[in-house]
Design goal:
The complex is a heterodimer.
Chain A lengths: L5 E9 L5 E9 L5 E7 L7 H12 L3 E5 L10 H10 L5 H16 L4 E10 L1 H12 L5 E5 L30 E6 L7 H13 L4 E6 L16 H19 L1
Parallel strand pairs in A: 3-4, 3-5, 5-6, 6-7, 7-8
Antiparallel strand pairs in A: 1-2, 2-4
Helix pairs in contact in A: 3-4
Chain B lengths: L6 E11 L2 E13 L9 E7 L8 E6 L1 H20 L4
Antiparallel strand pairs in B: 1-2, 2-3, 3-4
The chains are: A alpha/beta, B alpha+beta.
Chain lengths: ~250, ~90
């Protein structure tokens, strides 16, 4: 039963190309079987807040894995590593999908897994969730929380990020939930409109919720961007969506 | 933290990083969400030694008004140096 307790630890899992990368994992007390969730950390990195999100999903009855997608740029303090990621031009999309496939495979191999896996990502991780909905292997649902750069100008594309996620929309093969703040600048409401139009045009199973009075990263209780009412409502939407798709 | 914009300048100087004084070879400037400052966006400057690891870094996060005030004072300090024929 949910909320009774959890166990968690940091382990290493095989990511892209079999590289061993750190991952924070958690699971609820009880026998299961439980659905799996892959938590994609935000651009500031694999931080304490990310672990809080992992713990929340475990308390709600999910087996959870959250790899450090910046692992290869370390070791080092979280903010120093993030600065190095920025200088290197950001995360490599293909590597991220490889790391996600590794995390999904880890969840699927657990003996108390129910056979379903979802993902949720925040900020850059929201973009990666959108991308994973099209490209990852073994996913059943995806949640994009304020993913910026789903819509990208042609001159923003590069070797690491060669295709805008919006141009992967036709390949999306799992239900997608989007959570956005209407005061966000990345993505702007207009960019969210573009994503929604692309999903609609491609006939995809999606559900977007857009909140007034909220900007970017409004779940983060340790930042001034936090919006309590919008966060509580959005988490209800997230758990309802996942409950339907991953049970 | 949802952009990768970055302006860089080659610099010569020193800075005090967590591990002590280090030479500085590059300033990396960007406008994005801060790690620490209680503001949605800040001008962030990483003064780094490119020849060392990721921790050879002196990080600064400034609100937009603070950054503008700093530019003004940097110019004032340079003007003083120039007038005193120190530059």
């Amino acid at each position: 039963m949910a909320l009774e307790g959890l166990t968690s630890q940091t382990i290493q899992i095989a990511g892209n190309n079999g590289d061993m990368i750190d991952a924070y994992v958690a699971q609820p007390l009880g026998d299961g079987p439980f659905p799996g969730m892959f938590v994609i950390h935000h651009m500031p990195g694999w931080d304490e807040w990310t672990r809080e999100v992992v713990n929340k999903f475990a308390l709600h009855g999910y087996l959870v894995v959250s790899p450090n997608l910046h692992h290869r740029m370390g070791p080092g303090a979280l903010d120093d590593v993030m600065a190095a990621v920025r200088t290197s031009g950001g995360m490599d999309d293909a590597q991220v999908i490889g790391d996600m496939n590794g995390g999904i495979a880890y969840l699927r191999a657990l003996s108390n897994h129910n056979g379903k896996v979802g993902c949720i990502g925040f900020c850059s991780g929201g973009r990666q969730a959108y991308m994973a909905a099209a490209k990852a292997t073994g996913l059943d649902a995806a949640v994009d929380c304020w993913g910026g750069n789903v819509v990208m100008a042609a001159d923003a594309l590069n070797d690491k990020q060669p295709v805008a996620p919006i141009d992967m929309t036709s390949e999306i093969k799992v239900p997608l939930l989007g959570i956005f703040g209407n005061e966000d600048q990345a993505p702007t409401p207009e960019q969210v409109d573009q994503s929604e139009e692309a999903l609609k045009a491609a006939g995809k199973d999606y559900e977007f919720h857009r909140y007034d009075g909220a900007g970017h990263g409004f779940f983060a209780a340790h930042r001034p961007s936090y919006r309590v009412e919008q966060t509580l409502d959005a988490y209800q939407k997230v758990f309802a969506f996942l409950g339907k798709r991953l049970s | 933290m949802c952009n990768y914009m970055l302006e860089t300048a080659k610099i010569t100087g020193s800075g005090k990083a967590p591990k002590g004084w280090i030479p500085l070879t590059e300033a990396r400037v960007y406008f994005d969400h801060p790690f620490h400052t209680m503001a949605d966006h800040t001008v962030n400057i990483d003064f780094v030694d490119e020849n060392q690891g990721v921790d050879a870094r002196v990080a600064v996060e400034l609100t937009a008004d603070s950054a503008r005030a700093l530019i003004e004072k940097l110019e004032a300090a340079l003007k003083f140096g120039e007038e005193a024929k120190l530059v």
